[in-house]
Structure formats: C-alpha cells, structure tokens
User: Which sequence fits this backbone?
C-alpha cells in the first residue's frame, strides 16, 4: 500500500468506485503575490494529469484553498482505479522493419522489445508496423504518488529557493 492510499477517502461505501483526494502542501511563508498563481498552476496541472491518467470522472471537481503557508487541493469523485486500456503504438515503417526476405530487422526487434511483445505479434497497418498491447490499470494511490512530485516541480515563481542538498527548488522551503 502506498502512502497516498490512506489519503483516498471513499465517497460512499468502502467498495465505492470513486474517492476524494486531499493534498496539503506546507511551506515557509510565500510572498502574498505568489500564492494565487501557485495554487492556480497546481489546480490546472492536477486537473490535466487526472484526465491524462484516466482518474477523473464527469463529476470530478478540484477545489483550492490557500494561505501564505498552505496550498491545498481537494479533488472529489476520482476513480479509485484506472481502467484497463488497449494501447496501439506505431513503430517503424514496413521497409525499415523487414528485410527483402521478410525477416524482421533490428528496428522491428528493438521496437517489439520496447513494447514488451514478441516480434511475431507485430502487425502491419498501412505502411507502418504496429504493436497492440493491453495496459492494466493501476490503483489511484500509486498513480498519485507518482504525479504529485511532478506537480510541485512544475510550479513557477518569480524567485525560487533551494534548501537541503540544494537539488529541489520551490518558492519557499517545503515543510510538509
């Protein structure tokens, strides 16, 4: 169980398909002019990522609350689990994927390996080689654990601060 699983609260019965997600970021005091732009950037980024990761529903709503020391996002009606997806990836052209005798080239072999399928499973569609796979959906907590750090890295400020080892930057040092 990831640490973010505990932050997903079922919106109905424990086996409900949707949940509520709360993200609260505690910082040292941000300049007053940075608070509103930061929370709007976080809201836009979270909304976009929830759609990209197939966690939002038609009822999903992201609310924001902010003070100079806290940036808070509350996302209601998130899917608790991503849906499984059929994925189609277009690879190299047929001429590059197969030699004159029809044997797969290194281009086809590399593409198949990258997609995690055997070369024999590649299909020719038009003038390209295509790999069709099924992506198994993941739990929302696991997906959120990956996207939240990215959200914080993408927020821009007029001036950034570094602290600790100096590798991470934000408007002010993050405290929680």
Assistant:
């Amino acid at each position: 169980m990831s640490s973010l699983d505990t932050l997903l609260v079922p919106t109905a019965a424990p086996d409900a398909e949707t949940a509520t997600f709360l993200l609260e970021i505690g910082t040292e005091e941000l300049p007053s002019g940075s608070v509103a732009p930061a929370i709007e950037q976080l809201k836009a980024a979270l909304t976009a990522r929830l759609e990209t990761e197939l966690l939002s529903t038609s009822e999903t709503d992201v609310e924001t609350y902010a003070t100079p020391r806290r940036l808070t996002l509350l996302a209601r009606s998130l899917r608790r689990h991503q849906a499984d997806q059929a994925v189609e990836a277009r690879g190299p052209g047929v001429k590059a994927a197969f030699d004159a005798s029809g044997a797969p080239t290194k281009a086809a072999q590399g593409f198949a390996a990258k997609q995690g399928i055997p070369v024999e499973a590649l299909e020719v569609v038009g003038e390209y080689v295509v790999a069709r796979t099924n992506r198994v959906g993941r739990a929302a907590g696991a997906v959120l654990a990956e996207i939240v750090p990215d959200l914080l890295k993408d927020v821009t400020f007029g001036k950034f601060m570094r602290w600790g080892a100096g590798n991470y930057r934000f408007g002010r040092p993050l405290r929680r």
